[in-house]
Amino acid sequence: MTSFYYLILIFIAFNNLNDTTYQKAYYNNGNIASEGWIKNNKKEKYWKFYYDNGKIKKEGHFSNNNPVEYWYFYAQNGLKEKEGHYANGQKTNWWVFYNNLGQVNHKCQLKFNKKNGYCLMYKNQKIVSASKYVDGKKIKAWHNLKDFKKENNLLNLR
Question: For residue 150, how many other CB atoms are within 10 A of its CB?
Fold first, then answer.
């Protein structure tokens, strides 16, 4: 019995040293609003946020209260709206955007929350046009996919 109490005390001491707790928040209707880890009063690690109807709204990781790594965003009907990378709270790398049927609508490269690189437009799950952006400004557009691929020598576009 004594070893059980020591184990509890060690757990409490470790938890206090780490200062990390799991937190849940709820809507007035009783449905969960969010859940995730808090460290030093800041969001850390994996989090989920929900609509008041109980369906997931978004999910991803935090570091020091900033979104990091890969995130997923959903519509109230449960279909994916978009997904992509964060670094230090800023959208970066490739982001994928979906239409209201859950199919890819377009993909864009982002840097510091702005389009920076290629943007690919899709129809019926196939690339139909492309654009290139620098610091949020469109510098070129292609409506012929063959010309786009030839000029840019890109591999593995889907």
Answer: 11
